[in-house]
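Working notes for the structural subgroup meeting. M.R. asked for a predicted model of this chain before we commit to crystallization trials. I am recording the input and output together here so anyone reviewing the notebook later can reproduce the run.

Input as submitted:
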Amino acid sequence: MATNIIAVSAVSAVSLTPGHISTGTNICLGELTFVKREKMQMVETWLEKAEKKALMRELDEALEYVNSAILAIRKDGLCLDIVYKALRLLSFIYAGQAKWNEAEQILNDVIDAGSRAYGPHAADAMYMLAKNCLSCQNYEKAAKWCDMALDWFGNVNDRHLTRVQLCRNLYFKISEGQGKSKEAEQWRDRLHPDFNRGKNSLLR
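Returned structure, recorded in token form:
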């Protein structure tokens, strides 16, 4: 990746959400009047690379790839699925960088876009936001984001069971911090006996 990538702010990224996309920019693969298929494939490749870098915790490089994708989206217009993927990844990267205000701003617009915009990276970012809110003793906000993450993880297939356990464990800590001992006990009882917090993950 070139190092002279123009940084894309959260405000610029928010302009990609459905409510801010101007008529004529929501172009899908079959409609090649405005966007060449090669451009779509290039953006998808950037996002795939960004995802790999983010999961390897190479967040600055991941952000460069997402920024490149977002600049292309803003210039040429792409289908909403690509927009949603870029925003989900951006929220995940910002959360991983502890840029909480930016991550929250992106997530709020993803939420406003509806369930179609949701995905694992957005839910991961919600979980990380909840952890940060807990560390700041903002229990109400922590519960809000943890609840949203748990709602998404709990309604998909079994590959997210570990994340469900992480959310339940976080809810246990939130309830404990609020002095709700009975509720905390209930969350602890819902943890799997083999639950292990692990070490090498952005989520833990």
